[in-house]
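INFO  loader      accepted 1 record
INFO  loader      residues=441
INFO  predictor   begin
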Amino acid sequence: MGDVKVFTGTIVHATDLEPMQILENMAVGVLNNKIVFVEPASELATLKTKYKIQDTREITMTQSQFLMPGLVDTHIHAPQFPNTGIHLVLPLLEWLDNYTFPTEAKFADGKFAQYVYGAAVDRLLRCGTTTATYFGSLHLEGTKILGDTVHARGQRALVGKVNMIANCPSYYQEASLEDSLRETEEFILYIKNLKSDLVLPIVTPRSAPTCPKEHMERLAQLALKHDCHIQSHICESRSENDWVQELFPWSTSYADVYGTVGLLTDKTVMAHGVWLKDEEVALLKESGTGVAHCPNSNLSLRSGLCDVRRLLSAGLKVGLGTDCSGGYSPSILNSLRQAVLMSKTISTMTEGYESITLQEAFRLATLGGAKVICMEDRIGNFEVGKEFDALLVDVATMGTPLDIFPEDTTEEKIEKFLYNGDDRNILQVYVAGRNVMDKTR
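INFO  predictor   done
INFO  writer      dumping tokens
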């Protein structure tokens, strides 16, 4: 047996039964990239003998530190990263035309792509995002650079080359349907040839308005051929919904368009879902499609208030997304907070409404996201056998937004981090057992 690294102290994670489970005085053993035990620290002497653990492989957490699963961002636009925190003055469709498409068009320049993607992935890792579901741009070479960057940094990710040939600017659209399909398949094979357990391709029609019916059908066939994930947008704003109905008059809904062309699968991630009708929710549930809830973006672009309680009650898989740059923060901690506040806002307008709790939002940010991307057998919490994607958090680090007092309980320290903490409180980031960011060195 190889060397086992052991973390002792407080851990917090989510399970299907408990949205937030806090376990104190625990020992977590990691062999290579997987969790081999989660036991009371009182059993450590026995565990050391059983696993031949050397004292130098033990990391003892202080009373202000805890271990939590890595955060999962189920929806982010990597080429929009330069716009994060600016240009949020227009609603969705006008915002795309005026700010987003011009920025994404710049990624035809490989040097620009390399610089921006390096900054984006580094930022997300510092913010604790161990897994990200990335929209790239429509540029094949530029999106290969995104895949290479993620691979080199050690982040877990789904990476997609955007497909769009209709209803988009002439300076930023693919030449033809055949070119789009050819380059998408080339990109899929390129990512697969990285032979990485962490970086996977994801088929990415930008949205129904930008992809004619045959285009979406053939992208769905490509995904099936290569056993790929799929991602797109759905029911983000009312004006978008109306537009989809005009473009696809034969359909009964936005979700029906995707269902008809074969894009709704159990490996599909649909971003937003703000304006889903009941029959659309049922269709997503039947197909196993997950929803990326992006509350910051939905508020910033005035798209609407997504009723996450409704989606969860219907049995949908739901995770959180930053949707940079529609969302102004690249941190899933921000999405977690905004999700709670959005749900509380809905509760002020709906008698008897049960808003989601901070603990439930924590589960969305970790295990929920893992389920949306069909990786809950590998990541999302600290179950034995799963890969070790984790954050070492310290709520007492100097110069952070947190104030900790002697009477604070462990639960209160964790709540303070979730509501007020930031990347300065995250000391170490692990992906598949590898330390990819370390502030303790």
